[in-house]
Recover the amino acids of this structure.
């Protein structure tokens, strides 16, 4: 089997593990050639640090895509995350249109909000722009805040009911036509995880609920999911791998006097990911 190749399209935040500093090591460790389109360079992510730098690279997106197209580079998947502006969303859509072939898939993590709030710097109408990008995707990976914002609804705190989650999944599917892996799903204070919907069946994958919120866990999750999909796992199996890997990374971080803004210690858990993917015994 030849090596899979993906294009990861996110910002690069120099400190505070998220976006490309998470996607690149995780997908590479899973044996996937991970090409990158950096959409901006920041000194830190925007979640809790003051005075961070932000160098926008929007104008690089199409020249990179056109150069790649001219070289006839082929990709098995496109994986997008945090995007800095509505203009950037439109250009990323255009870049993917330029590069996508019939058998490549597009995984969109509409990383823009959490716990009922948009990330710093995004205008109110941003989720509608992100919803447009999600309409182009094959698989979307929103958390509950992002899901409700794209539907123009109010955020409500959990615990949730199955009826609530399944209505959200079906409304989001009607809006985007994409398969959904919804994160941050919980029905009680013991278990938390994700719900998958492929347009027909809903599956839940839950692990131990840990009451500390670390930055960048959504990116760890979506990167592990993308890796597992590229290792030919189906949506539910890929979600199981992503839930377990994220949960183990959080548990490891918790043992180490963690600073929430710095992100999680997923590096120590890379061997766990390799095992979960069945790559440890030469398969
Ligand atoms: O995916 C989270 C993320 C990525 N990139 C930047 C961010 C955030 C969350 O705040 O600020 C720049």
């Amino acid at each position: 089997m030849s090596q899979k190749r993906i294009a990861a399209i996110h910002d690069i935040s120099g400190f505070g593990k998220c976006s490309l500093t998470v996607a690149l090591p995780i997908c590479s460790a899973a044996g996937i050639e991970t090409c990158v389109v950096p959409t901006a360079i920041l000194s830190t992510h925007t979640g809790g640090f003051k005075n961070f730098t932000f160098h926008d690279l929007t104008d690089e997106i199409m020249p990179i895509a056109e150069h790649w197209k001219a070289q006839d580079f082929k990709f098995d998947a496109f994986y997008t995350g945090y995007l800095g502006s509505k203009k950037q969303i439109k250009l990323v859509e255009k870049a993917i249109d330029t590069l996508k072939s019939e058998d490549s898939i597009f995984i969109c993590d509409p990383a823009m909000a959490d716990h009922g709030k948009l990330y710093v710097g995004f205008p109110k109408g941003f989720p509608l722009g992100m919803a447009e990008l999600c309409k182009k995707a094959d698989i979307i990976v929103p958390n509950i805040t992002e899901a409700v914002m794209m539907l123009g609804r109010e955020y409500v705190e959990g615990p949730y009911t199955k009826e609530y989650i399944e209505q959200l999944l079906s409304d989001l599917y009607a809006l985007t036509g994409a398969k959904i892996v919804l994160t941050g799903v919980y029905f009680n204070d013991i278990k938390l995880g994700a719900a998958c919907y492929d347009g027909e069946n809903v599956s839940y994958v839950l692990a131990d609920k840990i009451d500390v919120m670390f930055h960048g866990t959504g990116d760890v999750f979506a990167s592990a999911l993308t890796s597992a999909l590229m290792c030919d796992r189906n949506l539910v199996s890929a979600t199981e791998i992503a839930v377990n890997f994220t949960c183990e990374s959080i548990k490891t971080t918790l043992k180490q006097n963690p600073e929430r803004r710095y992100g999680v210690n997923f590096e120590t858990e890379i061997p766990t990911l390799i095992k979960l993917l069945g790559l440890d015994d030469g398969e």
User: Anything to note?
Assistant: The chain has a mean pLDDT of 97. Residues 11, 13, 18-19, 42, 45-47, 81-82, 111, 119, 216, 218-219 surround PXL (CB under 6 Å). Residues 231 and 277 are 7 Å apart (CA to CA). DSSP finds nine helices and eleven strands in the chain.
